[in-house]
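Schema walkthrough. Field components (list of strings):
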Amino acid sequence: MSGAPHERVPVLEVESLSRSFGGVRAVDRVSFTLFSNELLAMIGPNGAGKTTCFNMVNGQLRPDAGAVRLNGRSILGLPPRSIWRLGVGRTFQITATFASMTVRENVQMALVSHYRRSRALWRPARDHYFDEAMALLERVGMDRQYDRACGVLAYGDLKRVELAVALANEPGLLLMDEPTAGMAPRERMELMQLTTGIVRERNIGVLFTEHDMDVVFAHADRIMVLDRGQLISEGTPMAVRSDRKVQEIYLGGSAVHDGGPA
Amino acid sequence: MADFIVSLLTGLSSAAAMFLVASGLSIIFGVTRIVNFAHGSFYMLGAYIGYTLVQAIGSTAVGFWAAVLIAAVAVGAIGVVMEILLLRRIYRAPELFQLIATFGVILVIQDVTLWVWGSEDLVGPQAPGLKGAADILGKPIPEYDLALIAISPLVLVGLWALFKLTRWGTLVRAATQDRQMVAALGVNQRWLFTGVLFLGSALAGLGGAVQIPKGGADLLMDFNILAVAFVVVVVGGMGSVFGAFWAAVLFGILQTFGIQILPNSTLVLMFLVMAVVLIFRPWGLLGMPETLGQAHPGPPEQPLRPALPRVRILGGAATALLLALPVAHLVLPQLVGAFTLVLVIEIMVFVLFAAALHFIMGPGGMVSFGHAAYFGGGAYAAALLVKFADAPFEIAFWAAPVGAALLAFLFGWFCVRLSGVYFAMLTLAFAQIAWAFVFQDMPGSVLRTFGIADEFGAPLKITGGDDGLNDIWPSAWAGTRIAYYYIAVGLSVAALWIMRRFLYAPFGYTLRAGRDSPLRAAAIGIDLTRHRWLAFALSGAFTGLAGALFLFSKGSVFPTTLEIARSFDALLMVLLGGVQSLFGPIFGAAALTWLNDLFSVLSYWRFLLGVTIIALVLLLPQGIVGFAGTRLGRRLRLARPEEITA
Ligand SMILES: Nc1ncnc2c1ncn2[C@@H]1O[C@H](COP(=O)(O)OP(=O)(O)OP(=O)(O)O)[C@@H](O)[C@H]1O
Ligand SMILES: [Mg+2]
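Field assembly_structure (string):
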């Protein structure tokens, strides 16, 4: 880790974001700010609205109301591809990779798109940004499996590939929806350690959801708790842990499950 | 006013058969996700079986309606046989592969029908008790038409009750709405699918049987109704019975009034309406959006790798053989006849056509049902340039790929916004419009409205309609059989190689990215619509090149180059060869062109071809090229060892 103190500037500002699905208020007036060099965890029981929040931030879903600003600029209404170009990387709760491509090709595709070479018709894709892709894979510990098809990878490995893909355009903001789902406990800690390293080194902001409380409390700088679409608590891990409302949700019977595929 | 009402009633009565067939197709698709091409054949069988039964027992009203119902049940049973013997084995095959299996069934049923009932059109007997005409506001309307008008709502209510009130119906509805649920059903899934095939086929059979008194039975019924049924289903919304009902009513009325306004344009009118509906409501009137990123049945495609040494050697050998063939012809004319060269030219034309279709279909996941538009469209562009601008061969030839690319650019703009079956149907619609454009010589009609016509005031012959455009040959230097052989082989091999480069380049990878995961593609900044559009146009250009080679090898071009059957041929070639491999279309086109040639001298060649297709589907569910992936193929080093799923 570089250790050099970075300036903390707001990367993502969300104001009063709301979205309903046929009468169900999936996300209800949620506001928060995420700073650079910060890992912000969003936790809450299944169906609390976490993924819906992510989808509105990266442009996949249109909010009913509210504002989203990236580095001070409104990104409301932009499609996901434009938001990505502004430096927002995303990993999905249910991994989305290109199954018919190798691990390295998946990362190369992100690089090809980043450098706007996706319409190149002649030079083989495998020769584009080869070294850069390998460097990213090394960063997430997937370099040894670079030539395997994503369609045959283990779930935890896919999550790692997604992280490498999300890092390809040097994002200032990473949205990670359950980045460690489907991994063994030790792997989880390792991946989050890795993420923390990247955050400190590149001074980026990370918003992540996670059902494993050990992971959350060990790595988050700040925690938000979402329940039935509403933000009910926010603060340092210490403060959130001692919040009575949070304890009620987590001890009061709302089952919390791992979000990986059944 | 009375005229209007009578027209309206006539329209509604013609909606009956459409609704019955379309609702069956829609129900089958909704649950099994199979686009049953054989559905039109079931309709035809319903008519023939119904005809025979009515002859036997239909002299009384009770007997007539009993005959109709028995025919429907018999066709339902045939549907069940198809499900058990064929579909059940291939539900897990790659998407759309079932399509060719059902296509094989069409061919088999065609020849079986021909064999049992003969080639003469059968004139239907009138329905006992409904032979007269009713009087509506002083105008006569056949009583049987009124019976037909009553049938659709009756069936609709029956289906509604079946789906709402029975457990089985609830399952069908749930399965239509939620794919995951079907997979979770396990054993029940079998019976659900079998039952759905029975119901859907019986509805088609009923449709065929009830229209005997109006239309009788003939051997063209299958394809004629198929196109119509597709349109009705798509406009209504795939899987929606109510949608099919309203769409059938809409088209029934449109047909009767359309005939009065623009004679012989009803099919075009239907396709135009469909195009408009799909542009504004991409999932039909009452359909639900297809969920993106649904799991592909079948194993995922393997990553693209450089060709294995042995495959390269085989490819080189094949190319060398192609280049040496004319020499062999000159040296040993008894062994390699002129006909062989002609056949090889034809094969290469279709190899190129199939490869161009595969370009968007395999890597892009865009299954076009109407690619003949660019094949024939290109050929017509070149032919028109020769006929009306006196363009030399060297220029006119290139007008084909350019013209086809422009056409694909235009049609593609609308199509690439849709996906899956809806994409397929919109491409089909545009192809039908293009077909009608040349078949009905629309440019001639349009010119006449501007006062440009021949001395009798009749429209000028531009595309020539049915007669096509004739006497279009290459320049002298290219006109000998051997010279043209080298042109055809050289250009198609070069085009294949160029397409291969495109697909190995970032552009091709981007297409595959969009097919594998639209979600991820968007999340890494890819403008998918734009890439798909460009790919569509490129594919059109290569298809047009095939059209040019075809035109100058035959010396003429007819509307048949744009018809549905031609589009389906290309589709069949790609699927039969194997959609997951770049070599697939090459093998598929070569095999099918050769088989067509081989069987065409036999009397029941459709039956043979159909059975061959079905056998191939069952034996090699990954297409002919799938052979490389079998244990034997791997041992022969035609494919890499399989990766083990973690
Ligand atoms: N596309 C949609 N259509 C209808 N309802 C939806 C849709 N997406 C989400 N919902 C509903 O919105 C609510 C919030 O869902 P969301 O996926 O955001 O929860 P989550 O916090 O991510 O849960 P999990 O921990 O299970 O991932 C749920 O009630 C869900 O059923
Ligand atoms: Mg979620």
